[in-house]
DNA sequence: TAGATTGTTAATCGATTAACAATC
DNA sequence: TAGATTGTTAATCGATTAACAATC
């Protein structure tokens, strides 16, 4: 069978990276950043696996989805690998965000300075409460939700953060999609209805507590 | 082989439920709650699968990890199934929480009234800033972190929510463990070091943004 | 009873781990 | 060169989907 293939046949294929792999990348990135700050220049998959409590095999498999970043007999250059994973994650450049909902959670997120360290810059907030419009959180201005589409079309906004009650979330998500937003970080406790090409990441906070609750409860039952 | 087994041999086994199944339970619970509120009394796995955009097979497999909740030819009683999943998740009873860190995120979480609807009651907050001690957020008092162990031993606290900077998180987590806490919802951007029997659920907010960023970036690259 | 739909077994698919030849 | 460790193939494990007999 091999003789029928010519160079490039297989390389052309757009290999789909599994969600599990992508979900692990931020953790690699964090560990490599810490290791780099410790002044360590090189690391083997084995050493990294011990730190991260995963298998060395998984690390090598994960990384080789994106290319060969290591060197036989040597391991990986920490800083280089850190930068490469940053590129893969797309955080080598700035992403402009808007936050919809200037309530407690919206404010907390806007005040969360760690986002900017990773290139995520919050450009504006939106709400409907008259008393909030015009206020500023860390230099980020709150606009009325009516001006949402206008703002998005005038600025380079890639990602919207949705921190509003669930009964309004679906309608606002549709407006975001119509205005051209391609990615939504959804804190509202509902699934959004968006086209296939719009990316949604759900953060349902009470779901995390329920998972804890399950495990706490099953512990006590068996004892 | 079968003739060697007597009744009960297999039933004794403590079947481990996979994490993937448990992670799906809160979503089932949410959909069933909504369906119940619509006044729908029964539903088949097929109908539910259409709503939830999963396979009917997966629903039946998931549920049958915990018992047969349905009836052939009929489907599932919505309210009954809702309650049963609630019991499995351990939210048929109250869980007392404490929140460590009364910053923006800690305040937002304490103000998040949805937790109480699911039986998660925040009993106290802790911080080190003198100007915060004694203040109240929604009737929840802020105590000094020095009194943490004392408070935990005097009250029935199952779960701690950690919303403090990462450089303090590991040390505080150790104190929580020593004080007897069995479950931690960790918002600090670091992995905690805890014994095997302590349950940690990590919520690394910037990781979610990085996952979005990856997908936004890979979209633009291929076009 | 006939039809519907479960509970459960079997088949498939995908992800993780192990093994090792390639090579620095 | 000898030793170390990668990149990658093969083996294993687990999770999802399909199929269908059991049964309401």
TrEMBL record, chains A, B:
Domain CoA-binding: 90-191
Pfam family, any one: CoA_binding
Residues bound to NAD(+): 101-106
Domain of life: Bacteria
UniProt keyword terms in alphabetical order: Cytoplasm, DNA-binding, NAD, Repressor, Transcription, Transcription regulation
GO molecular function, one term: DNA-binding transcription factor activity
SUPFAM superfamilies the record matches: NAD(P)-binding Rossmann-fold domains, Winged helix' DNA-binding domain
Keyword Metal-binding appears in the UniProt entry: no
GO cellular component, one term: cytoplasm
Known role: Modulates transcription in response to changes in cellular NADH/NAD(+) redox state.
UniProt cross-references to HAMAP family, sorted A to Z: Rex (MF_01131)
Family per record: Belongs to the transcriptional regulatory Rex family.
Stated name of the protein: Redox-sensing transcriptional repressor Rex
Designated gene of the protein: rex
């Amino acid at each position: 069978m091999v003789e029928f293939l010519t160079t490039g046949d297989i390389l052309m294929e757009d290999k789909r990276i599994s969600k599990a792999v992508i979900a692990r990348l931020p953790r690699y990135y964090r560990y490599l950043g810490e290791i780099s700050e410790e002044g360590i220049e090189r690391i083997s998959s084995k050493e990294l696996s011990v730190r991260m409590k995963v298998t060395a095999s998984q690390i090598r498999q994960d990384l080789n989805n994106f290319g060969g970043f290591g060197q036989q007999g040597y391991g990986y250059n920490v800083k280089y690998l850190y930068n490469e994973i940053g590129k893969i994650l797309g955080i080598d450049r700035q992403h402009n965000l808007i936050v919809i909902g200037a309530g407690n959670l919206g404010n907390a997120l806007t005040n969360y300075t760690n986002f900017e360290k990773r290139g995520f810059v919050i450009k504006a907030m939106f709400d409907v409460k008259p008393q909030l419009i015009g206020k500023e959180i860390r230099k980020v201005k709150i606009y009325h939700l009516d001006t949402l589409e206008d703002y998005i079309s005038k600025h380079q906004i890639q990602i919207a953060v949705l921190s509003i009650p669930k009964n309004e979330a679906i309608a606002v998500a549709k407006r975001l999609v119509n205005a051209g937003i391609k990615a939504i970080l959804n804190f509202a406790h509902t699934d959004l209805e968006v086209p296939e090409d719009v990316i949604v990441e759900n953060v349902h906070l009470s779901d995390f507590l329920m998972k804890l609750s399950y495990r706490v409860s099953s512990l006590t039952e068996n004892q």
